[in-house]
Write a structure and sequence with these properties.
Layout lengths: L10 H40 L17 H10 L5 H4 L1 H4 L4 E5 L3 E5 L2 H10 L4 E2 L3 H9 L8 H20 L3 H20 L4 E3 H18 L8 H24 L11 H26 L1 H7 L1 H10 L2 H30 L3 H14 L9 H5 L2 H13 L5 E6 L3 E7 L5 E5 L4 E5 H4 L3 H4 L15 H8 L17 H18 L19 E3 L3 E3 L4 E3 L2
Parallel strand pairs: 2-8
Antiparallel strand pairs: 1-2, 3-5, 4-11, 5-8, 6-7, 9-10
Helix pairs in contact: 6-10, 8-9, 8-21, 9-14, 10-11, 11-12, 11-14, 12-13, 13-14, 14-17, 14-21
Length: 526
């Protein structure tokens, strides 16, 4: 029985068949993508109609393609230190407006919309490309994670801050003593007696935060290593902030020195993590937990030295920069308003004798006007001046749609919404005609806080919703402790002659991840 011979397919016919198959695959993929997009669009449109949504009509105006004219103006504003003030006229277009550049996005200063993003519809949003901007410096942690990973990291840190709160303020005392000594030495070494407090505040908060995290202060390192770390950390934070604002093209911006700066900061944090874990291996878990509680608790859960390092860096970023800026801006305005210095000194003298060796939370909580001053500083110079989220599913914002801007509107899946806490906090609609004046008295009777929160999250001192800052109590206690001791140690503190006393908004600002004073905080102490 003979078999039928197999006739080979001609090469030209085989190539034709492959081309047909490839073409069919491409067409079917495109058709499926188009159908999926059309189906999602139909669902979103139906949802918008069901909820009575109207489109957002106000639009960010620009003249050149891809808003190059606006980007150029912002680039030129960077050296002047007034980037946020340059944006003020745009924020006045409407409380919520569209940004149609590469793709459609939105910006808002409406507290109702911000409340929906941060709280009411929290699960509808992710960090999106913000993660890409911060990841090279910080790695995995609360500022780069969403979903279950974020919840896990947050719970780890929540336990740590609960422990810190129970421990009282004694760990801060020695750092306060070092801060006062450094300020005194700077005054003695200054030919004109002028001291810039801002770098001292950054050193102070770095010391308290590293002692909290690493079990020993940053000052335990040689001076050269400390200076190198500060320079690397500042540069990496500055570039990371730019990368956040570049959104989808953040990957393309890695200037010379950025990778090296990130690597050095991460190596520094890993050095302390390894030191604690090596101590555990030598002396046992109980001894290590007593000496390095923060690191050992993280290790118990993660069992990965690099992940422990990342968690430490996330807390370090928040603990060092935000509290230092809070102190700097507070004294920046106190010395420009001598009556506020006098009132604080009187309040402190009545509540805390100068010979009190160590302050307690009860001591600080009695200083109600001091709290008003800190709230006013956080209003004008919020810890996160601008922020952004991206919709992981179609979601409804309560206001901004329609001709009058009062209708709900739809944010489609994948679209971004940014908000400016900086400009919302300076809104006359929320804070009255003197919204751009540093006036702590506005907080005294407690009605303002209630009133602005009736309109949404109108005051974002330490963020809001599930991502509210875990270190809020520590930051306020640390800043209050420092202010009390500085005013007690230097009762003649004042603004030096010749240093400008300009209206709020005229001062030069450094906008990175936080907002600091570009001119520092210069004072006379004697």
């Amino acid at each position: 029985m003979s078999s039928t011979p197999v006739v080979p397919m001609p090469a030209s016919l085989e190539g034709w068949a492959l081309r047909v198959l490839a073409t069919a695959l491409v067409i079917s993929t495109c058709a499926y993508w188009y159908w999926q997009r059309w189906s999602n669009r139909q669902y979103e449109d139906a949802l918008a109609a069901q909820k009575g949504c109207q489109p957002v009509l106000p639009r960010l105006p620009y003249k050149w393609p891809f808003a190059i004219d606006l980007l150029w103006r912002q680039y030129k504003a960077l050296p002047s230190g007034r980037l946020l003030e340059l944006q003020t006229p745009f924020m006045a277009i409407a409380p919520t407006f569209r940004i149609d550049i590469i793709k459609e996005g939105f910006s808002t200063t409406d507290p109702k919309n911000i409340e929906a993003v941060l709280n009411t519809n929290f699960e509808d949003y992710s960090l999106g490309v913000r993660r890409d901007g911060l990841y090279p410096l910080l790695g995995e942690g609360i500022f780069t994670q969403d979903g279950s990973a974020w919840r896990h990291s947050r719970e780890l840190l929540r336990r740590q801050f609960a422990r810190v709160r129970e421990g009282g303020l004694s760990p801060i005392t020695s750092h306060i003593t070092s801060l006062l000594s450094a300020i005194e030495a700077a005054a003695n070494g200054s030919p004109d007696g002028i001291v810039d407090l801002q770098p001292h505040f950054f050193n102070f908060t770095l010391g308290t935060t590293t002692a909290l995290l690493f079990g020993e202060p940053h000052s335990s390192l040689p001076r050269r290593d400390r200076d190198a770390l500060r320079e690397n950390f500042d540069y990496a934070s500055y570039i990371s902030a730019i990368r956040i604002r570049l959104a989808e093209v953040a990957w393309a911006y890695r200037p010379r020195g950025f990778n090296s700066a990130c690597d050095n900061v991460r190596a520094w944090a890993l050095f302390f993590a390894n030191k604690a874990l090596d101590y555990k291996d030598i002396h046992g878990m109980d001894a290590a937990r007593e000496r390095y509680p923060f690191i050992i608790d993280l290790w118990d859960d993660m069992r990965d030295r690099n992940l422990v390092r990342d968690q430490l860096l996330h807390v370090l970023l928040a603990g060092r920069d935000s509290t230092a800026c809070l102190l700097s801006w507070t004294f920046f305005h106190l010395v420009r308003n001598p009556h506020l210095v006098k009132r604080l000194q009187d309040e402190i003298a009545q509540g805390i004798p100068t010979d009190t060796a160590e302050l307690t939370r009860n001591d600080i909580n009695k200083l109600m006007f001091l709290r008003c001053c800190l709230q006013e500083t956080l209003r004008l110079y919020p810890q996160t001046p601008v922020n952004v989220r991206f919709a992981v599913r179609p979601t409804i914002l309560p206001r901004g749609g329609g001709p009058d801007g009062r209708s709900p509107w739809l944010l489609r899946k994948g679209q971004g919404i940014g908000w400016s806490t900086y400009h919302m906090h300076r809104s006359e609609a929320l804070y009255g005609p003197d919204a751009r004046v540093y006036r702590p008295e506005r907080w005294e009777d407690g009605t303002l806080l209630h009133r602005v929160h009736e309109k949404g999250v109108g005051f974002l001192d330490f963020h809001a919703g599930p991502r509210v800052c875990l270190g809020k109590d520590f930051a306020l206690m640390e800043a209050s402790y420092a202010i009390v001791r500085i005013l007690q140690a230097f009762p003649k503190i004042r603004l030096p002659p010749g240093v400008p006393n300009e209206p709020v908004g005229s001062e030069k600002q450094n906008l990175t991840i936080v907002l600091s004073s570009a001119d520092g905080c210069k004072v006379l102490l004697r």
